[in-house]
Design a protein that fits this description.
It is a single chain. With about 140 residues, the chain is mainly alpha-helical. About 65% of the residues lie in helices and about 0% in strands. The chain has 6 helices and no strands. The longest helix is centred in the C-terminal third of the chain and has 20 residues.
Length: about 140
Amino acid sequence: MFYRTFLHCYDFFPALLFDLVVVGIIKVVFRRQRPRQNEMDMFVTVSVDHYSFPSGHATRAVMLACFLCLKTALGASSAYVVVWASAVCLTRVLLGRHHVFDVLSGVIIGIVEFYILEAAWLPMEVCLDIMRPFQELFHI
């Protein structure tokens, strides 16, 4: 069961790259400044952008939640994934990193990205065929 669910992870990498490109383009186009209460108090981290719209955390959390809830056999555990994605979105506002509209837009963009990527979702058999040479090479 875990192995069959794990195979879906092979589609996560291109999905995350797609999200980074989409969010990066939107941030550069709109260049919305972060909230005034946003303090650059995270000295140990590296910030890749200085813009607020949309929340990349929200887009990725919602897109991954859609994948996990709708493409895997999580069953009742899906509720935990929804709570996690909601918590990610809520903390972006509570930490003062984003405006509410940025997060709500990120949620919508994450859902749209999921449906776009669902059209390109690789069936499990194709994933197995792609991964077979790597499995043999690395003895997985």
